[in-house]
Specification:
The strands form 3 sheets. Strands 3-4-5-6-9-10 form a 6-stranded mixed beta sheet, with helices on both faces. The mean pLDDT is 93. It is built from 14 helices and 13 strands. The chain is of the alpha/beta class. The protein has 2 domains: 2-41 and 277-383, 3-Layer(aba) Sandwich (Rossmann fold); 48-266, Glycerate kinase, domain 2 (Alpha-Beta Complex). This is Glycerate kinase. Belongs to the glycerate kinase type-1 family.
Length: 386
């Protein structure tokens, strides 16, 4: 039997490769002669850098960049094994989890650090970029990113705007005369799993602003600022991007990367799947195992297990999944192609205990599922059924 294990991380407890390895340990106890292919995966959010660096024998690059409130922060990006592909997580330089609840203010936060990462990767020789938009603390339409790469955002007096989404209300002109010239040599893929436009009731400010600390009044002001921003992108740069699905992702960073990086917005799992060659891997196996930290009704909306299941279903391969926990409407994953789903937690416990015991719990759960699978196979042989 040949088994592919393709999992996302269990947040705050196990990396994606650690999840896959734990499941393999449990299964090998019951199927010692099985062949396993374990791969870390991600959907473009947290863990994407780790997954692609690990899978391609790449490297992790640590660097100090501008943080979401302007102060220097320690950040990182990945370079895959080809030496030319940089993998960047927006959350590593402009992430919501970098700020306390009292610091969250999408009117002031900036994506400049993401641009710092791009510039550093350019210096490192990278010309292909994969940028994951998940987890941002910002609403500046990636203006800060563009500033780090040489763009100037000017008010009516010709003065440069300060950082943050609210400042865009005073934007009178965009000047790209000093824009980083090496960008013309690059291809940029942006992992984007939402289809929100830039503006309006379904746009960046209204949908994602409250999650980042915006009041109702601030949401209205931020949307008005992005209206000005969209007009300037169109009139100054000839880029009409506000209505493109995904333009509103990460506080309008979808629109900004389209305008300044000539990016292509794609589902995160699709990008990762291609990089890892998952289709060829799954084509060769008998069983597919996937998982993530919490599996619930939201899993089917672009998360790693749903992507793995969709690919496996197309290839006619059965899929089971493990989660650190199972949440509301978890039964929806069955319609997405996951035949069975299991929680690894084995007893009532606190979150801290579940995180601390994640690996032994997962090994135990995988071993028990494998034993059940072996029992079913034995019964099939004894009864002559298939």
């Amino acid at each position: 039997m040949k088994i592919a294990i393709v999992c996302d991380s269990f947040k705050e407890s196990l990396s994606a490769i650690s999840v896959a390895e734990a499941i393999q340990v449990g299964f090998q106890e019951i199927f010692p002669d099985a062949e396993f292919i374990a791969r870390p995966a991600a959907d473009g959010g947290e863990g994407t850098v780790s997954a692609l660096v690990s899978a391609t024998n790449g490297k992790l690059v640590e660097v100090s960049v501008t943080g979401p409130l302007g102060a220097p922060v320690n950040s990182f990006y990945g370079v895959t094994g080809d030496g030319r592909t940089a993998v960047i997580e927006m959350a590593a330089a402009a992430g919501l989890e970098m700020l306390s609840s009292g610091q969250r203010d999408p009117g002031r936060t900036t994506t400049r650090g993401v641009g710092d990462l791009i510039r550093h990767a350019l210096d490192d020789g990278c010309r292909h970029f994969i940028i994951g938009l998940g987890g941002s603390a910002t609403n500046d339409g990636a203006a800060g990113l563009a500033q780090a790469l040489g763009a100037r955002f000017l008010d009516e007096q010709g003065q440069e705007l300060e950082a943050g989404g609210l400042a865009l209300r005073r934007l009178a002109r965009i000047d790209l005369s000093n824009m980083e010239p090496r960008l013309a040599e690059c291809t940029v893929e942006v992992a984007c799993d939402v289809d929100n436009p830039l503006l309006g009731t379904e746009g960046a400010s209204a949908v994602f602003g409250p999650q980042k600390g915006a009041s109702a009044e601030l949401v209205e002001a931020l949307d008005a600022a992005l209206v000005v921003y969209a007009r300037r992108l169109e009139e100054d740069l000839g880029k009409k991007v506000g209505d493109i699905p995904g333009a509103g992702a990460a506080g309008g960073a979808g629109a900004g990367t389209l305008a300044f990086l000539n990016s292509r917005l794609r589902p995160g799992f699709e990008i990762v799947s291609e990089m890892l060659g998952l289709e060829e891997i799954l084509r060769s196996v008998d069983l597919v195992i996937t998982g993530e930290g919490r599996i619930d009704g939201q899993t089917i909306r672009g998360k790693t297990p749903a992507g793995v299941a969709a690919l496996a279903r197309r290839l006619g391969k059965p899929v089971i999944a493990f989660g650190g926990s199972l949440g509301p409407e978890v039964e929806k994953v069955h319609d997405a192609g996951i035949e069975a789903v299991f929680a690894s937690v084995s007893r009532p416990c606190t979150l801290a205990e579940a995180l601390a015991e994640a690996r032994p719990n997962l090994i135990r759960a995988a071993r028990n599922v494998a034993a059940t699978l072996r029992l079913g196979m034995t019964l099939d042989r004894e009864t002559g059924t298939t």
